Amino acid sequence: MAITADEYKQQRLLTGLTIDEIASQLGLSSRQIQRYESGETIPKARDLTALKGLINIKPVKASLKKSFTFIDLFAGIGGLRCAFSSINGQCIFTSEWDRFAQETYQANYRDNRLPEGDIRPFSDKPKSVPDHDILLAGFPCQPFSLAGVSKKNSLGRPHGFLCDTQGTLFHDTAKIIDAKKPKAFLLENVKNLGSHDGGNTFRTILNVLRNELGYHVDYKVINAAGWVPQKRERIFIAGFRDSNDFSFENMKVLDPAKGPRLGTILDDKVDEKYTLSDKLWNYLQNYKKKHEAKGNGFGFGLVGPNDVARTLSARYHKDGSEILIKQNGKNPRRLTPHECARLMGFETKGDEPFNIPVSDTQAYRQFGNSVVVPVVKAVAKHMEPYLQRDLVESLQAAE
Ligand SMILES: C[S@@+](CC[C@H](N)C(=O)[O-])C[C@H]1O[C@@H](n2cnc3c(N)ncnc32)[C@H](O)[C@@H]1O
């Protein structure tokens, strides 16, 4: 199909490159590009394809960016939402069934609607989900995480896709993708999703997304430690409805060895209630000794301002054992909820704080279940040029 001069120019502008830069990238003369843009010559199909290839790798100029809509499934406290709002996205539907998470969500994002609860009635009737450009879902990881798997196994129950409760939530997500055909999706999960059940779970997921739903899919495990002082590895699965050459391979991932240290997120003065009681501190020390004697590496993680924390888990409220902060002449302490907010990149020291309207217990669970916002922002930025190209193309098709 022939393209008009205006369309060629629009595509060229989307690359963020000048006529001279495009000419040298494509091995054409600047005059040739000018002729395409003035309508003197109809662009050759192969020159157009090559031009579109450059859109993929170049950031889109702010003035040309189109806004888009997204839905936030298994929304938790909106970590994925924060990132996609930061690239011009508008959240039009939220599903999160935990009332405490809903409370935090509503305290931080202004919507003229309430979050919906259980996603399953919606996936049964996907028409009730509004049309959207991007679907975001951090579907619950428990059936796929090591902890979840061993717990379910020990209870003699099936797990993953055989589990008839949480394990099917991926299928609910897939049903919505199938019915609504968003331009793109981003799914997030624990790193262990890739190896669960000898890789079968992940193979099934990829098979559904690629072969049953027909999306171009790539995935990557990213360690958050380049962005925040926390080792936190999560798998991100990005999919595009229209075929493109999106890949995580060329995404700029910050070096975990060069990331910030805990000093950047710790408060100077902290309420005494966060200091561990003698009873709990003795218990944790004895527990560690017992396991070390058996040759197991289990135990608490004791850290200071120059260290990087272990992964914050949803069970941090129980004993705080994975991240204990050293204190001079005192038992160590837990992180405060606001320190957790910083550890997850929801707020930075000195800036406007993230609203935490719930109890400490609920707040720890919510942050431990969430995503590291700057990591998702980097993923969103990496997806953005591809998404923008799809948005422009669908606008052109609608004209
Ligand atoms: C791993 S967390 C996702 C956290 C989120 N990405 C964030 O940034 O905070 C999964 C969330 O799914 C919610 N959830 C689990 N089952 C659900 C269901 N059937 N419908 C709606 N939400 C559900 C849980 O309450 C939990 O908050």
- Overall helicity: 25-40%
Which topology of the largest domain does CATH recognise? Rossmann fold
State the fourth-level CATH superfamily of the largest domain.
Vaccinia Virus protein VP39
Distance separating the two termini: 15 Å
The rounded Rg comes to 24 Å
Query: In sequence order, what are the helices and strands, one letter per element?
Result: HHHHEHEHHEHHEHEEHEHEEHHH
- Would you identify the CATH architecture of the largest domain? 3-Layer(aba) Sandwich
- Overall geometry comes to elongated
Instruction: Give me the side-by-side strand order of the main sheet.
Output: 2-1-3-4-6-5
Q: What's the multimeric state?
A: single chain
- CATH class type of the largest domain: Alpha Beta
Strand count, sense and closure of the main sheet? 6 strands, mixed
Structural class of the helices, strands and pairings? Answer: alpha/beta
Strand content: 5-15%
Low-confidence stretches: 142-166
Bound molecules: S-adenosylmethionine
Question: How would you describe this protein?
Answer:
- With 399 residues, the chain is of the alpha/beta class.
- It folds into three domains: 5-58, lambda repressor-like DNA-binding domains (434 Repressor (Amino-terminal Domain)), CATH 1.10.260.40; 66-254 and 372-398, 3-Layer(aba) Sandwich (Rossmann fold); 262-368, DNA Methylase, Chain A, domain 2, CATH 3.90.120.
- It has helices spanning 5-15, 19-26, 30-38, 45-57, 79-85, 99-108, 120-124, 146-154, 169-180, 200-212, 278-293, 316-319, 337-343, 360-368, 373-398, and strands at residues 68-73, 89-95, 134-137, 184-190, 216-223, 233-240, 302-303, 324-327, 330-333.
- It has a six-stranded mixed β-sheet with strand order 2-1-3-4-6-5, sandwiched between helices. A three-stranded mixed β-sheet has the order 7-8-9, with no helix packed on it.
- Helix 1 runs parallel beside helix 4 (45-57) and helix 2 crosses helix 3.
- The chain is elongated, with a radius of gyration of 24 Å.
- Residues 142-166 have low confidence and may be disordered.
- Bound molecules: S-adenosylmethionine.
- S-adenosylmethionine binds at residues 74-80, 95-98, 101, 118-120, 138, 140-141, 169, 369-371.
